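Troubleshooting: if your tokenizer reports a length mismatch, compare against these two reference records.
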Amino acid sequence: MLASTPVFDTLAFPSRAQLGEGPVWDGAQLHWVDILGRKLFSSDLDAAVTRTTDLPQMPGFAVPDIAGGWLAGFPDGLWRSNVALTEWEQLWHAPHPLETHRINDGKTDPQGRVWFGSMTYAEVDPLSALYRLDGSGVTEELAHVTTSNGLDWSPDHRTFYYTDSIPRVIWAFDYDEASGDISNKREFARDPAGYVPDGGCIDDDGCFWSCKWNGSRIVRYTPDGRTDLVWELPVHNPTSCAFVGPDRSVLAITSAQSTDPSCASEFDGAVLLIQTRTAGPTMTLARSK
């Protein structure tokens, strides 16, 4: 499904991310966050127009809101910005202790609900959760999570995929698009020791792409959980991915700096671009009201 030669691009913005995450394509620009650097990056794919916005707290994720601003998961809960990203209001206070937990990955579902999860800094015990924001507020959808991560929905909107990184498991659930309810939790894929599933995304063929932290690769799984391909990457810690570009056929992969000098790469913290022979769904704006 992939072109024979990937195109890696650093998207020449002022500085590399310390911990790049959460790529989002709004139809015109690619956006992603630097969790540790507390920044939101925005760029054309040719890097002709780039913007870096400082954020008031450490973002686990940020998604465009239907009102024109952004909705972000900060350590203490959900916040919504104005269009200019100069003012923020808190929508929801996280129930976890801030000294041990923070909000991590998040994404909008096909109806504009926002799904997001928490993680512990220690990443040892299953003390975190998956949440959903809709018109009724925030509800806890899944408990006993260690590190909430990569999530997306199948093209027919009947299956929800969700990653708990530390147990190295990607779960699948039945998904009711009308209500947003999930059920029938089952194991979709499990990584061997040493490879940590991080962020991920779905393509139009119904295959799930999973970035492997500590693994220098991204893996494409078929809808029945079989490994379809393994794509080696020039970064030790790829973090998340999204389909971008005019026809959404380019896979954008965020990455983090490596703490192991023996694994360091010139691409660490950059966004990698791979031209594929598939594509991904369009993004749904968050409906935070």
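Reference record two:
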Amino acid sequence: MDKIEQKIIETIEQNREKIVEFGRDIWHHAELGYREFRTAEKFNALLKELGMQVDEELAITGAKGYLKPKGSEGPTVAVIGELDALPIANHKDTNPETGAAHCCGHHAQLTATIGAALALSVPEVKEALGGNVVFMSAPSEEFVDIDYKNGLRKEGKARYGGGKCELIRIGAFEDIDVALGHHSDTDNSNDAIIMNCSSNVFVNKTVKFKGRKAHAAGFPHKGVDALNAAELALHGIALQRESFRDADTVRCHGYYLKGGDAVNIIADDVVLEYCVRAKTMEAVIDANAKVDRCFKAGAIATGCGVEIETLPGYFSTQPCPDVSALEAALAAAGEKKPLRVKEVPASAHITGSTDFGDVSAIMPLIQFYTTGLTGELHNNNVEVVDEDIAYILPAKLFALTAYHLLKDGAAGAKHLVDIYEPKLTRETYVDYMEKMLGTTTVEMDPLPILED
């Protein structure tokens, strides 16, 4: 361990209570995507206390705090923490004002970002960096609350459902060369995981079937049942699954937002939220077209109308060609007490999705997980059981990885940028997102009502 690594670790350990208290506070004040105003204010205030220039209100609540002045010489590394939580109303620590809970672990990565900022702001450490570090907060990683996000889109306040997607669109990543990402995990057989595999692409859909009300027992023939249209469409999707290639890891899933008004009324207004995922951009375009076809078929077969509103979701994560900076960070963090580290290699694939994937499409992304939580993520049983592993370890790994990328004249960051092959440019990324964004409509075409 060199003296800068030692200084980073000592600084984080000396600030342990401040870092942990930040994590506890965010845990108890969870907020939903694009509405994380209190969380953002607390994050920004701490960066300002460290003397940083902070660009605020990026994609509504996001921010960028610059360790050195903008335009400083050398590559720039972004340490990224997410602001939002999940709408889980029955967790014991749910925020009563928002109905949200941090059963996603985002409070831990945001806390780690603050811990890294404390360490890298030490003058001795800062001077050892041959480039800049940006501490970035990103809103709305959880792709939920779609009606609200569609409302923001129609108001012109945010175009995409994912916060990093929106940050890419508005150019917030234009001065970043390498991104660092973290996520919490509940598999406490490990302390840390090198997460360097691909993930699924997805698109999100709001599907509205329009029928005609009638008395369900007395005059069902006078109605046009939107619920039947939806059921038929879902059956069509189920039958379509054999057309999906196994290699494309396609997933189609959703739920009813509205299924009708009463048991004795033919439903005239049925709404589904649906998600289509696949391993590649090409595969998700194919699966999305097949799913749309089923929704339209259900409407046509029953005489209903349907409106299919598609919102582009997240891109596939591109494995990083060199994670040696993270490996060096893990070695330093575990020098006194060896860490239990698992590596998920580039050859692996997960069928979940993250908007870190979108970042990885345009620049190299080094991503790791840490544990310290129990329960099942996205469930109401998530708890923080080891604050050192949940908050302090990722802070060290963020700071140490940034240091290893930027030490020796930023040799590590420069090498990584040289060998990385972008999947998309910002322009082609936005072009893809815009092509997936849109509304398809089939007009209602019921038969004439037979008179009694």
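Descriptive notes for reference record two:
- The radius of gyration is 24 Å.
- The chain has a mean pLDDT of 96.
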